[in-house]
Amino acid sequence: DGATLYITRDLAGAVYRWNEYKFDQSLYVVGASQSDHFKQMLKVLGMLEDAEDVPANDRMVDRIKHIEFGWVRFGQKVMSTRSGNIIYLEDVFNRAIEMVESIIKEKNPDLKEIKKTASDIGIGAVLFSQLSVRRIKDVSFVWDDVLNFDGETGPYLQYTHARLCSLIRKYESQGNDISADIDVKLISSDEEARVVEILADYGEAVADAGRVYEPYIIIQYLLRLSSAFNSVYQRRDDEGKIVRIVSDDVELSKARIALVVSVQTVLKDGLSLLGISAPEEM
Predict the structure, then answer these.
(1) Inter-residue contact 192 to 186 (CB < 8 Å)
(2) How high is the pLDDT of residue 86?
């Protein structure tokens, strides 16, 4: 009857985008169930370019990739538009924000800009839940897990960032300069050395994530960094007393705050790459 098929529309769309934009990459972020469809589409595009003797360095087909991902489940149900079993993302965001706002009002009612902070945390929690597993795996969305402030969740990373910002504010409020030169030899404990080692891996983690299209790699890196810093923050001496970041030892405090600033900078940047806000207070 002259109607088009999925694949004919995708072929036309690919050719149009190539002629219009001459893209470096065209990424189709579509569920893994469509894997065969994209293999067929790319095969046809390759045959078309073979027939036209397109030069190897100017082939559209080599710049198109299918970025597949698993199912999203709410409980035991798989979302499907055809079956009508769907939940709109806007509704998920709105509910997450409402739940976080309720938690904040209960635990920290004096917090400034509660609504904005609730929005940052709620949206960040949802994004984290989708990006924290390898994209080919199925995602099971459970509210209690998503909004947990203690486990490996978005709020946990955001809370760690807020704690770092609080330490920096407190240090600066005492008239100290966080940009001052430090004696790096003073950062000497095993826990601090571990943080430095992880900080050095950040560039590689971002490069790996980009190379294989896996935001999961950045999230796992940020979780390792946060866990390592929290070990420094909660460290105790031989007498069982907490070892403070800021102490009466001016030079040691300066060095430890430099480490805090480094972790805060990387944590904020990593969250930004994932589209997640980094609140300074929670």
Answers:
(1) no
(2) 73
227/160 Cα distance (integer angstroms): 9
Beta carbons of 228 and 194 less than 8 angstroms apart: yes
pLDDT at res. 87: 75
Sheet hosting strand 139-141, strand order edge to edge = 77-78, 72-74, 139-141
Of 70, 218, 229, 71, the closest CA to residue 154 belongs to: 218
CA distance 100 to 130: 18
For the chain, which ranges sit under pLDDT 70? 75-85, 146-150
CA separation for the pair 162, 104 (Å, rounded): 14
- Model pLDDT for residues 106-118, shown as the tens digit of each residue: 988 999 899 999 9
Q: Residue 110: how many CA atoms within 13 Å on its side-chain side?
A: 0
Q: Which residues of 135-166 are buried (b: 16+ CB within 10 A; e: fewer)?
A: beeebebeeeebbebeebbbbbbbbbbbbbbe
Residue 239: predicted pLDDT: 76
Q: Are 168 and 257 in contact (CB under 8 A)?
A: yes
Written as one letter, the residue type at 146 is V
Q: How far is it, in rounded angstroms, from Cα 166 to Cα 246? A: 12
Per-residue pLDDT at 75: 64
Write the pLDDT tens digit of every residue in 261-278.
Answer: 999 999 999 999 999 999
Q: How many whole angstroms separate alpha carbon 123 and alpha carbon 121?
A: 6
Cα 149–Cα 155–Cα 160 angle in degrees, nearest 5: 90
Burial of 272 (0-12, 13-18, 19+ CB in 10 A): exposed
